[in-house]
């Protein structure tokens, strides 16, 4: 089953632990709460540089993630909640747009959790909706 990666720092940790394959990255969908510029250049905006976490092991896997993000973006598999520091899209709207573009059913906006606070609930909504994506965070 394809995956929806719903946490930038969580994905780095999953990669370090060996829980995410290159195929997962090549076929997966992405929706992060960080800005696009942060995901493509962690710490470049003066924020946290997650590449230094996990005793620096995140830096080892980050190039593969960056490459996968750029490919996924070209293929419409990235839903940016914050494409830049001035914009904050509604998670359910950008997520449903991405799902529709790939011929998948969408989430009911009335049942969508506050993405920033309930990633387990987001996973449960996907399971209830029979959307063929495994939510990883």
Largest sheet: 4 strands, parallel
Element string (H = helix, E = strand): EHHEHHEHHE
Average of pLDDT: 90
Q: Number of helical segments? A: 6
Q: Enumerate the strands of the largest sheet in spatial order, edge to edge or round the barrel.
A: 3-2-1-4
The termini sit apart by 15 Å
Structural domains: how many: 1
Helix/strand-derived category reads: alpha/beta
Helix content: 40-55%
User: Tell me, what's the shape?
Assistant: globular
Round the Cα radius of gyration to an integer and report it.
14 Å
Multimer state: single chain
Strand content: 5-15%
Low-confidence blocks of residues: none
Question: How many beta strands in the DSSP annotation?
Answer: 4
Describe what this molecule looks like in 3D:
The protein has a 4-stranded parallel sheet with strand order 3-2-1-4. The protein has one domain (2-136). The chain has helices spanning 8-16, 22-27, 36-40, 57-74, 91-101, 119-128, and strands at 2-5, 29-35, 78-82, 133-136. By secondary structure, it is of the alpha/beta class. The longest helix is centred in the middle third of the chain and has 18 residues, at 57-74. It is built from 6 helices and 4 strands. It is globular. α1 crosses α4. Helix content is 43%, strand content 15%. The mean pLDDT is 90.
């Amino acid at each position: 089953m394809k995956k929806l990666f719903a946490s930038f720092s969580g994905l780095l940790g999953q990669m370090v632990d060996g829980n995410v394959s290159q195929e997962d990255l090549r076929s997966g969908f992405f929706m992060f709460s960080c800005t696009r510029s942060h995901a493509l250049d962690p710490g470049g905006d003066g924020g946290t540089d997650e590449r230094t976490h996990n005793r620096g092991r995140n830096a080892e896997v980050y190039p593969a993630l960056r490459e996968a993000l750029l490919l996924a973006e070209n293929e419409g598999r990235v839903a940016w909640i914050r494409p830049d520091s001035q914009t904050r899209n509604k998670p359910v709207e950008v997520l449903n747009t991405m799902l529709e573009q790939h011929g998948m059913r969408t989430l009911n906006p009335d049942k969508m959790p506050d993405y920033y606070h309930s990633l387990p609930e987001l996973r449960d909504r996907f399971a209830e909706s029979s959307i063929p994506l495994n939510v990883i965070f």
